[in-house]
Design a protein that fits this description.
alpha/beta; Rossmann fold; GMP Synthetase, Chain A, domain 3; seven-stranded mixed sheet; five-stranded parallel sheet; 30 strands; binds 5'-O-[(S)-ethoxy(hydroxy)phosphoryl]adenosine
Length: about 650
Amino acid sequence: MSTIKSVSKESRIFEPPAAFAQQARVSTREQYDALYRRSIDDPEGFWGDLASELHWFSKPTKIRQWDPPFAKWFEDGTTNLAYNCLDRHVAEGRGDRVALVWEGEPGETLTFTYAELSRQVQRFANGLLRAGVVEGDRVVIYMGMVPEAAIAMLACARIGAVHSVIFGGFAADAVRDRVLDAGATTILTQDGAWRRGKVVALKAQVDKALEQCPDVARTIVLRRTGNEITMKEGRDHEWTAVLEGVSDEHQAPALPAEHPLFILYTSGTTGKPKGVLHTTGGYMVGTYVTTKYVFDLRDDDVYWCTADVGWITGHSYIAYGPLTNGATVLMYEGAPNHPGLDRFWEIIAKHQVTIFYTAPTAIRAFIKWGDEHPSKHDLSSLRLLGTVGEPINPEAWMWYRRVIGGDRCPIIDTWWQTETGAIMMTPLPGAIPAKPGSCTLPFFGVSPKILREDGSEAETNEGGYLVIDQPWPSMLRTVWGNDERFRQGYFSRFPGKYFTGDGARRDEHGYFWVMGRVDDVVNVSGHRLGTAELESALVAHPTVAEAAVVARPDELTGQALVAFVTLKGGVTPSGELKKELADHVGNEIGKFARPASVRFADAVPKTRSGKIMRRLLAELAAGKEPAGDVTTLEDISVLAALRGDDE
Ligand code: WTA
């Protein structure tokens, strides 16, 4: 019996548009195959060559060491990531290029050239040093999406301080746990951040968190929203004061490639947060190379990734990947629905955005809000669309292609994780035909396998556990302060191989289809099914914007399916529609998969990074009170709304 049964029937395929392919870096499948072959057969030669496109104070000769589960990359090289993001471009005559275009939620715009951004980072680096931060210190960045957040990250990287960005949506307890686990000495924060026209009071949360963090020596506070805050004498410093009289020239030190770069706590759905550790050289090369080939950046691109810098996507694909490539990056401070439901589309038209990278959760919200919002704006500047964060339902993919991409833009469905640091599976937009819902093929150097329970390899279209059996430059090095948890969590299920936690299958063209987290797999009448395919069947119904499928105990079948469904705007919920939706799944997939219950919900519980928390829904569906950790839950009020069973 297969580990996870696939029930998907998706067969549409979209070739890269000829005009796109013509100017792409990799423009044919053959070219991709040749590069991929070399990356697997000769990883040292392949990565060594690509690493030399960046600046090293001393060039690495030891490219890769692999002593599972521990990897080292470029170990004897020294470099500086901030230097590669900034100084290198200035030195090579690109100082006048725009590095960052920032749009504030209230509507103001700021523009930084590479030369300006470089000066600001050097100045803040000097400010941090003068304030007493030293190489190796952990610095927590708990800020909104302001340019200073990026400047702070780059300044830390520059001086060799280890940053740990905490998403601004977390509250005091989550901040405290992360500060303590990281052993942070310094916190960079703001009075408040703008969110949907309201102030999120960040400094107040820091004050509360710090009541239990005696080792924090200082905070540095940016004034953004002007709300009242209390400043503790001797501990809390104004951002402006830290910069006062400080030079904007700072010589970037040569740091060893394996110098710790940042810790990022994963937004896991259970348990104590895990500090994923990334180091300098491998992460730099991994994000640089993926950005270059996957987004296929050109000089005239305006690139926008809508993630928050509090997530790995913000680290890798707002800051480090695009800046090492000398790209023009748009950064937006606020919410997609402020002041109107068309804010994103207004921004794309205003700044002539050419590349747009967002998450399925956002796409499903756009679908729910209705086509009239994007239709109001001229989106013809767009040439490439991307998605990351969850499996994208094929119908949501089709909507993205048609309504946002005007049937003209390729879509890259990029599979990766906080732990992988950089994109691992994705189509290269000029070379690889796309299938809606598939992340297609591995990126260079990535060796994914699909395994059965017993560790043998699954057959074509047989679902199984997704593992990666070779190291890659941007892989996590450990869990901060806990090598044992690192080994246990990632390398114990299939010894020596990195286990992703995801279920997947590989189709007859070698394309990968991620079927969701294996913890979410449901078992109905002996069939183990991934949630993504069941949900995709629901989203294929014209009335549905979003769906989450979970199982509840059932005397007859072992488990019965419960579907939580969010309807598109304007659709009236009714008992008939519930039956129609259940029948629809039964017809699409098979009678055994027909949900026993369909519940309409205005929203489903999600993590703060937008992933559906099926564990909570399963507890609700079983008539229990959610017992586990809910601190990562985005909006606690949705739980209350979901409790009532309205069958
Ligand atoms: C899921 C985000 C399907 C997956 C960069 C993974 C995806 C987890 C995709 C990591 C995708 C991310 N298709 N599933 N394109 N991208 N995922 O750490 O379950 O926030 O393991 O990193 O998101 O989430 P994380």
